[in-house]
Structure formats: structure tokens, C-alpha cells
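Database export, one record per block. Field names are fixed; values are copied verbatim from the stored entry.
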Amino acid sequence: MNMTQWLYDMKESSVKKAMPILSFPSVQLLGIGVKELIYSSDLQAKGMKAVADRVDAAAAVSMMDLSVEADAFGSEIRVSDDEVPTVIGHIIETEEQADSLEIPKVGAGRTGRYIEAIEKACKLIADRPVLSGVIGPFSLAGRMLDVSEAMIYCYDEPDMVHKILEKITKFTTDYINAYKAVGANGVVIAEPLAGLLSPALNEEFSVKYVKQVVDAVQSDDFTVIYHNCGNGTPKLINEILTIGAGAYHFGNAVDMKEMLDLAPSDTILMGNIDPSSQFRNGTPESIHTATLALLEKCGGYKNFVPSSGCDIPPMSSWDNIDAFFKAVAEYYNR
């Protein structure tokens, strides 16, 4: 699939298809728990297919599981049946530990299962792009260093942070290329922790490394979508846009119209219905109202694509998810 053309057609179309980050709620369609899902490539692929059969989304997006890469590097992971996996504690606190940090082989931990899942999903889903997902370099570093400490280390131990980021960037590039090799049409790179940085620190510790990844993997047949759900993204937008991603996805902590006004009109922006207060805890009526309100503000921008603000939680009501898609269709079919 020519993804450059896909992005162009999406931008030029007067009727948009929504593209939420929707994968974990597949557990409800399959009648399984999150723990079972994350350890089975077959179930992940079947889950993506079940979601694709249920909703007319612009693309099939794999799980935004921000623990996978940390797991491969040796972090401890907490797993449950109804919540997204999380990283426990940290594995680096000295420069010596940063020096000795080994870059895992692609396939380590659960990364092999996730690559297999995308390969299988590509064989099941032929009517839309299949997108893989990875965590961004600085957000992964934060899970290795502890999120709060990572911010301090940017000032106190910048060389240590850069050493870690260089290793992460090498692994991330190889990992994404493995997805590309099995047929993925693109990747969503989630870099939420960078939303807490100043513009200068964001450029030094995040943008620089994300851009290296994008330059190494993006092509006409493989696109990168950059995701940042931090509330500081409006002040970071100039640096973020230099990454050169195919599209940019922002969270519900920011005003989507403000982001559209700050970005060039030929750059696709996606977002940003609240995954917690609406998809997880809202009602079909509330999410229908919120979606139409967002579209009334942003639907006039041809480079806007309606989406969730972040990954939709596993136990979100499918009535709410269906109401979101119904509202999008209602708006564009007027």
C-alpha cells in the first residue's frame, strides 16, 4: 500500500473516517482478559480483526502497550486482566548502569509475539492499513530511569540520558523495521513523556532521537504517526513538526483547534476525545455530544482526523465506542 498516497487521500477527502487508537477493548469481543491477550500473537491478530469487522476505522491499530520495550530491556512489568500493563520501578540510576545496559535483540521479551501478531493481522485485514505501535525514545528512557528522575537527569546527568537514548534509538529502529518486514503499513510512536519537557529539552532529548527513527524507517509504503498526549504540546509544536512524521496525534489535554491553528494546513493532525472520561466512563449520549462538539470546532480543517485522545482502555463500553463512530458518520454525512 502506498501510504504517502493514503495520507494524501485522507487529507483531501471531504468525508473522514475516524482513526482512534482502538485495540485493547478487543478483549471484550474475544471474551478474554488483557493478560491472555498480551502473551498471544494469535489473539492479538484476531482482536485486531474483530475490531476491524466491528467499526469502519481508517486503519487497524495495534495495542499501545508502553511496557513491551521496557520488558525487553529488563524492566519489571505489572499485568492484570482488565488494565493496560505497566512498568514497576526502574533499572538505571547510575552512569555505570547506563554504560552496561545491553541492547536487546528484536524478539526479546514480548516483542517477538507483537511482531508475529502484526504479521498475522496483515493476513486477516486487507481493506485498510495495519499499523504497529512502539513507545518513543524519551518515554522509554523514563520507564528505565523512573519518570520523575528522568526529568532531573536531563539537567544533572545529560550524558547518561543521551547514552540510554542512543541505545534505545538503535533498538527502536530495528524493532520498527521488523514490523515493516512482516507487512505493517506504518507505526504509531507514542512519546507522551516528552510533553512535560521544555521546548529546548524536548528538542535535545526527544525530537532528535524520534527524527532519527523516522528518517530510518519511513518510506512511501510505511508511514510514522507521532503521538504525544502531554498538556505541553502546544508550546512544543514547532520542534515536534521537524520530526517529519506522516501525521501527528495529540491527546485530550490540549485544545485540538489550537493545535490545528499552529500546524501547517497540509500536515494531518489526529485527536482527541478523552479516553477516560468519555470512552471508559462516559455514556453513548455524552460521547456522541463530545464528538460532535469536537467536529464542529475542527471538522472544517481538511487536515483533521477525528480520533481518541490516547489508547482506549480495555474495559471501555462498546456502546460508547459505537456512539463515537456514529457521531463521526453523522457529522460527515450531513
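Remark 1: Residues 158-181 form the longest helix (24 residues).
Remark 2: The first strand starts at residue 60 and ends at 61.
End of record.
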